[in-house]
Structures are given as structure tokens and as C-alpha cells.
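User: Sequence for SPEB protein below. C-alpha cells please.
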Amino acid sequence: GGDHTITYPILQALAEKHGPVGLVHVDAHTDTGDRALGEKIYHGTPFRRCVEEGLLDCSRVVQVGIRGSSYDPDPYKYCRDQGFRVVPAEECWGKSLVPLMGEVRKQMGDKPAYISFDIDGLDPAYAPGTGTPEIAGLTPAQALEIIRGCKGLNIVGCDLVEVAPMYDVSGNTALLGANLLFEMLCVLPKVKTM
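Assistant: C-alpha cells for SPEB protein:
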């Protein structure tokens, strides 16, 4: 869908109903910047705004696949200072993420949680149709392990953002995005799968 700004008002609405929620965030970027071009709300700031408004249970925020360029010499400091668990992409390379998701399920517990999946969390070899591609990302199999690893959590919502089909003439990014959304629907509470 749209850019990652859309997650901010969704989390405002969810927090109004559930209180601060946990977050499983897959992305190449932390999206915790303060400003860009003088603006406080843009696709690189939503989770900082969410922290400022108390929308997130920061002890239950996990960011997976983080990598890429930054304007800051310590790009994960803000996140760690808030209590987020940051799992850089290099910690995921060449291995299954099933064990990580076991840890994430324990961290999330049975309280409300949200899944926010930026398609640029995946390597652009698989998903080039995005505005801010970063090399050395996750694989589609790892994406499935993350999403399927959320089964049994108290998921109160999810999104998949930053898909830009016009940047991918093959159509693979849109196909991958649609399949990942389907997988997210399958892990929602009370959804029966075969």
C-alpha cells in the first residue's frame, strides 16, 4: 500500500481502543527520524511520533531486517534508548528466523500487537518495486517465517507498505506483497487455516 506514514494514524486508533501495543516491524529502516525537509510527519518518522504519543509498548517493539544508509553515526541508538529490540539484517543472513520468532512470541506475550511490514525489508533482488531499496535484505522465505511466527499472538492489526509497482516491470514486488498480506490475514486471531 502507501508509504509508512499510514501506520501512524492506524496505531493512534488502535491505542485508543487497546492502549499501547507491541509491534513487529520489518523494514530496512527504523523509521524513527525526527524530521525531513522540515516536516515531522513523513515515511521516515512514524514510529518516533508513536513513541512520543505513547502508542507503543516500547518493551514489546521488535524491528527486523534493519540496514542501509543513515544520516546518523549510530542509527539504532534512538530505538535502543526507547527499549526496542533491533535485529539488523546481518544478524539474519543465511539462517532461519524461526528461533528469533520464538523469542519474539515470548516478548509479545498475550497483549495486543501489530505487524507493520515495509516491503523494503526484503532484498531488492526479490522486491525492487519500492522507493527506498537497500541491498542485503531478507529473503521471501524469511518474510514467511516472520509472519507465520506471529501465529498465536494477539494481533490487532497489520499493514504492508511501500510497494511501488511502477518501479518493478516484472510485477514480482506486487505479487510478493499480495502474498505477504494474505499470510498476515492467516495469522490473525480466530482465523482457521488448513
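The radius of gyration is 15 Å.
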